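Entry:
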Amino acid sequence: MSFLLNEEQQMIEDALGRVLRQLWQHTTLADPAAAQAMQRTLWQQLAELGLLGAFLPERLGGSDGGPVETMIVARAFGQHLVRLPVLAQQVMCGAILAHHSDQWPSGFDAQSLGSGGLRMALAAHERERRYDVDRPATQARPTDAGYRLDGSKHFVCDGADAEWLIVSARLDDGLGLFLVPAGTAGLQIEGYPSVEGSALATVHLRDVQVTAAARLCGQADAGRILGQAITQAAFWAAAETLGGCEAAMQQTLAYLQVREQFGRRLASFQALQHRASDLHADLEMLRSQVLGASLSLIADPMGASARADVAAAACLAADTGDRICREAIQMHGAIGMTRDLGIGRYLMRVNFLWRLLGDPHWQQQRLLNHGLEMLS
């Protein structure tokens, strides 16, 4: 597949790579104080360069980019194991806010999303519903002043630090999406770290009162727009997985070139050469699938073809990412199991992404459903 970045996109990729090489060291994450300082510095630098909003529309403070810019940023994050709340805020929440054309609730500044000044999270997943977010058990009941929300949300990515939440809830006439300030009475947010260190939260809503203006999108559009947010998140995760696999392969090949066994460099062993060759083929297949999904999203971001291509990329990324990262650890030998070396962090990140957004079996079902939708 022929795919070339234009001049502006190449500038974004170059600037992002330069900033990440200068300011981000994933080994620093083991020290909480140093990690927080590093994250703040990087966040500020990315905001000043306009990279946080590279793929957001102008009305959200972005540069009016699109899927290619999303892929560039996600892939670089995967290569450097960056842990910032871009997936939760700019990707998932941004996809929903981009479709809202009415007035915003009081105190909500949508323009600051692209500049990094607005902390948000999407509260859509529920324990009982697994990955199906379009049939929430959380309820929204109309009141004289607006709506009352009751229920619980789980696995909310970067929810503990959010100033605003987008909460999905079931109405008598369908699905609703609501903007809820973090300090609202009856809202309880319990943060906790995931196995690989990312921040998750459980959100409890008990008689949470919001105004009518807090409801986003129309009744007929809420389900479609939420689905688009999940599709955008899956595309980000596929691109980030691609970047992680690229970095893991690069480190592994470099290690094979210098490590010696029985008086010979590991790279000279034919069995390891064949394994590396197979992994390279898998990586190129994933790269082509992610690039193809970006082209489909450009052509028709809400269409069945785009959703099917993203589901295919997600399905391949979840499976291929796990295999490449495990092989990278194994080909490093015993040192690959150590935390100090860090090669295992790629596997932890890949598995976190696809357990958060949908495992390979669920992605396969999405691919099948969207394929059938295209044929109907």
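The longest helix spans residues 222-258.
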